[in-house]
Amino acid sequence: MCYACVPWQSAARGTWLTHLPHLVLPPLLGAAPHSRARQAIAGFVSGIYKATAAFQQVDPSLPPLWQAITKLDKAGVEAAIRAGADLNARNAAGDTPLLYIAREGHYKFPPKDIPLALIQAGADLEAKDRDGKTALDVALLSGWQNIAELLIKSKAQTGGVAAIKGAVTCPDCKRIIAQYAL
């Protein structure tokens, strides 16, 4: 299985989106990370996620911040932040919002959207998941280079990257590791 399938399978949960990387990534793998083609596809896929999230049933017992994150609702996230939401509250899987976003990726959560709002509000960049990995580690291992780069630029600690960089398979994440000498 190629590196692109793993995050897509968890995000797409067996839908046709599972196969999207095979349809669009091969011609783009040689393209620059910030090329117009990649940006257009990212915008298209993000739009699909947001449109489908609007119809998703959300567990009403979740705190408002987690409800908004589940619905990909930036305004809801911002309202929860203003209301004093715990930015590091963990979900049933043990993830904080940033860890969850690092797993789900930059198509579902464009970096300048919900992730940036959480970081600017003071979310813990160093919170660890059940395996002891930070959001930066998770983003790099999951192939979400845009989330990883946002975390690095937001001053996430990078010392743990040395322990996982041999397991990173995404070419863009490898480029980021080299670019920032991690």
UniProtKB/TrEMBL annotation:
GO (cellular component) term, any one: nucleus
InterPro entries linked to this entry: Ankyrin_rpt, Ankyrin_rpt-contain_sf
GO biological process, one term: regulation of gene expression
Keywords, ordered alphabetically: ANK repeat, Repeat
SUPFAM superfamilies tied to this protein: Ankyrin repeat (SSF48403)
ANK repeat ranges per the UniProt record: 93-130
PANTHER family given in the database record: ANKYRIN REPEAT FAMILY A (PTHR24124), CHROMOSOME UNDETERMINED SCAFFOLD_25, WHOLE GENOME SHOTGUN SEQUENCE (PTHR24124:SF14)
Record's protein name: Uncharacterized protein
The species this protein was found in: Monoraphidium neglectum
Classification lineage: Eukaryota, Viridiplantae, Chlorophyta, core chlorophytes, Chlorophyceae
